[in-house]
Each structure stands twice: as C-alpha cells, then as structure tokens.
Amino acid sequence: MGIAQYSTRSSAPSARLQLWNELASANWSGVRVSAPRDSFEGTLRHTGLRDVQFARVQSSRAEIIRSIGHDRADRVTLHYQRRGTSRNFCGGMESLLTPGDIAIFRSTDDYRIELSDGNDMLVADFGEALLRGPIGVASAACMAASRHPTGLIGGLIDGVLRIDDDLDREAGGIVEASFAEFLRLMLRPPRGDDNAGLRQRALALITRHLHDPDLRTSTIAAHLAVSERAVQYAFALHGETPMGVMLARRLDQAARDLRSSTRTTITEIALGNGFSSSSYFTRCFRDRFGTTPRHYRSLGPIL
Where in the numbering of this chain does the HTH araC/xylS-type domain appear (predicted)? Predict the structure, then answer.
C-alpha cells in the first residue's frame, strides 16, 4: 500500500478543472466535477488496501455528479465530511452533511453533491462483502455525528492517510478488519432512539417531501439510517402506517390548495402533492372526503 498525492496547484488555472476531472474519473466510476474553471483548486491523497480504497479530497466550491447505473452492485461508497458542508441529492432525497456526518451510497446510485468552499471530505470505497452480509441500510443513508459514532470511521481513514510508509499485508488486513468493525458499530441503531422520536423524525421528513411521488417507507428508512421494519413499528404503535400517514397529509394539503387557489389546475395540485396522476388523486380524494376535488373546490375559499 502506498500513498498517492495529487494537486492542481502546479497546473495553469485554466487546466485545473480538466485535471481534476481526470483524477476523479480514474478513481471513481461515473464521476464528473463542475466548477468555475479559472478559480478551482483541489488536492487528493489516496491509498488502497486489498478491498478498501481511502481518499482525502480537498477542494474549492464545486458540484459533483455521478451518473452511472451500470456499475457493480456490490460496492459501497462512504463520504465523511471533515470540514465544510455538502448538500447531497440522491433518489429524490436531500441531506446536508456538516463536519462529522457521513453519507453512504451504493455503486449503482446516481447522485449530485454541492460542495461548499474550503471543502474537506474523506472517502472510502469498499466491497459490501467486507461486512460479511448486507450493509443493512438503503442507498443515500445519512449518518449524523450527533446520533452515530461516525468519528471512529473518520479517525481511522484520516490516520491511515497520514502514514507515509507502506503498510505490509498483515497491517493492511488489520486496518480493513478495524474499518469493518467500526462500520458495523456505526450502522447499529443509535441508543435512546425511541419509537416516538423516530416517528417524529419520519413525520418531519414526510412533511418536507410531500411533493415527491417516489417517497415511500424504504426511502424514509434510508434517510433516517434505520430499517424499514423500525419505521413501520414506530407508526404501528399509533395504529398507523407510514404510507397511510403520507397519503392523509397529501390529501389534507391538496384540499387546502383546492380551496385557496382557483388558478392552479386540479392536475397541477395533484402532481404538486406527490400523486402520480390526476385520476389516482381523484379516487383517493373521494374516498377521504366523500366528494370529488372539483366539487370540493366549488364550495369556495376557506375563510
């Protein structure tokens, strides 16, 4: 194992972004970088073990886009926010990483990341087999430092990348095993995460993403970094289901929209509240309110 280091500083300003894109595509499949060409700066420190690749990526403000969909499905990418912030978009979900937070992506995920200026991120790319079983969270999971022991992962990656001498095979194996153990520990449900708290976080997520037709129990679980069963159980204690609550909130919001605006069409209101079609919205609306959206709107504005 050796440490490879790269920097754009020795290149002409107009050539730096192209160099950075070449480095990105050489290390991460399907990745491209967009940024102001003449002001971009970046440094990369990279090393590889048997089945784990570690990197520290520092750069000025940029947008990272991965468009892939054809890569091996058994690889996982982990981003640890060391400094700065990053706004992550994947599978219709959005999350903001602050220092200490972690985002996890599968190798088949398309994503977009908006990096703040002065960004400093640690990256691990590894095979899911390293955990001796499924990783246990869905794509685009976000692990907040306030709720998960993410610092163990960040400290390990950071420490390995500071070693100038090569690690022998035995030492590399120990590092991989430690990384796997820290990852399993981090992926455990946080202590004290009672069902009421989980339900409240899920409700807040539903409220923010009512417009997203792809929002479902699996994506809620992924965003909250828990299992689908945990989300379902938290709602079941109240005699609810996540999808049932989501549908009720969408219908309530649509009802308010129908009575507060006559310029927006019923189809626009349906799609704007996460319904896949106007006909499906009409059926659901009639079941809940006993009348059609058109007749409900004719009752006049809410006073």
Answer: 200-299
Domain with CATH 1.10.10.60 in the chain: 195-298
What's the fold here for domain 195-298?
Answer: Arc Repressor Mutant, subunit A (1.10.10)
Q: Is residue 281 pLDDT above 90, yes or no?
A: yes
pLDDT one-digit tens code per residue, 204-255: 999 999 999 989 898 898 888 788 888 888 888 777 889 999 999 999 999 9
DSSP letters for the chain: ---EEEESTTS-HHHHHHHHHHHHHHHSTTEEEE--TTT--EEEEEEE-SSEEEEEEEESSEEEEE--SSS-TTEEEEEEEEES-EEEEETTEEEEE-TT-EEEEETT--EEEEEPTTEEEEEEEEEGGGGTS--SS-TTEEE-TTTS-HHHHHHHHHHHHT--SPP-HHHHHHHHHHHHHHHHHHHSPPTT--HHHHHHHHHHHHHHTTT-TT--HHHHHHHHTS-HHHHHHHHHTTT--HHHHHHHHHHHHHHHHHHH-SSS-HHHHHHHTT-S-HHHHHHHHHHHHSS-HHHHHHT----
- Residue ranges, comma separated, of all CATH 2.60.120.10 domains in the chain are 4-187
Whole-structure pTM value: 0.68
pLDDT grade for 184, boundaries at 50, 70 and 90: confident
Instruction: Give me the architecture of the 4-187 domain, per CATH.
Output: Sandwich (2.60)
